[in-house]
Amino acid sequence: MFFPLFSLLGFTFEHTIVCDRLWTPKGMAMALHALPPLVKVAVAQMTAISDTNANFITCARLVQEAAAAGVKLLSLPECFSFIGSRDGEALGIAEPLTGPIMKRYQSLAREAGLWLALGGFQEKGPDDKHIYNTHVLLDDYGRICSSYRKIHLFDVDVPGGPVLKESNNTAPGSEVVVANCPAGKLGLTVCYDLRFPELYQRLRFAENAEVLLVPSAFTKKTGEAHWELLLRARAVETQCYVLAAAQAGKHNDKRESYGDAMIIDPWGTVIARLPDKLVTGIAVAQVDLSMLQAIRLRMPIEQHRRYDIYGPSCPQQVPSKGDEKHSSL
């Protein structure tokens, strides 16, 4: 893939050599041999409803489509397995991560032989009145590698849109989560997190994330105004790939999501998206970590950060959970 804008920083060919001493035929051959392989990733777009079996059938079809395309990591959107029509309905279907719903998705990942990021699962919470909105990462054997409980809860009266108060029935998480996978080091987030750049600064500059996952169910009103804008901003300011799976269309009479699932590269370019904001399907692109490394080398914003003036933007007192060993769940 060729990126014309890279000429502004001296990028002149697909796999950029990042050291001046390698600008020789022998040096370029050695460097190209050492570059990490390109990895296919995908984001899903769907319209979940209040039927976990119907949603599983939709997700299974998307997983099969991704596997056929050679995808190594597929990201499903927030609430992939259930979106209710009444406030508090998710409490009735919430399960621990050892429950039967999760086991079906573990089998799905294992049978397809790909990594599966489950963007927002209704995990049984700390009490009978609350769940966790949990982003679960499965490896290609179906094992749970990492889980992130959504930190920022959507308690908003959307101008011209619905009034949503996620905290009524959802407890917030308290840990930042990163995990290694074939596509690079992943930073796990969920939907409303996108509006809080401090989290993404932490994932990039303290945890060294390379790929940020932002599975979402953005409202139609906020999506029209801010969805792509915020995603591209997070990519540029962190120099990371951003994978944004999305819920789309009308889930019921009360709930409608914006859609527009997309993948953005570390230069802020949208490199994949579905042709329609409402269609069910996947968007596929390649993660090129050599390109990411070249951007970070030529524009070293990590070195230019002025902690002496504005203080640390990634406070270390916030717990971090990353690079976990495979769980037996």
Automatic annotation (TrEMBL):
<dbReference type="InterPro" id="IPR045254">
    <property type="entry name" value="Nit1/2_C-N_Hydrolase"/>
</dbReference>
<feature type="region of interest" description="Disordered">
    <location>
        <begin position="310"/>
        <end position="329"/>
    </location>
</feature>
<dbReference type="InterPro" id="IPR003010">
    <property type="entry name" value="C-N_Hydrolase"/>
</dbReference>
<keyword id="KW-0732">Signal</keyword>
<protein>
    <recommendedName>
        <fullName>CN hydrolase domain-containing protein</fullName>
    </recommendedName>
</protein>
<dbReference type="Pfam" id="PF00795">
    <property type="entry name" value="CN_hydrolase"/>
</dbReference>
<dbReference type="InterPro" id="IPR036526">
    <property type="entry name" value="C-N_Hydrolase_sf"/>
</dbReference>
<feature type="signal peptide">
    <location>
        <begin position="1"/>
        <end position="19"/>
    </location>
</feature>
<keyword id="KW-0378">Hydrolase</keyword>
<feature type="domain" description="CN hydrolase">
    <location>
        <begin position="39"/>
        <end position="289"/>
    </location>
</feature>
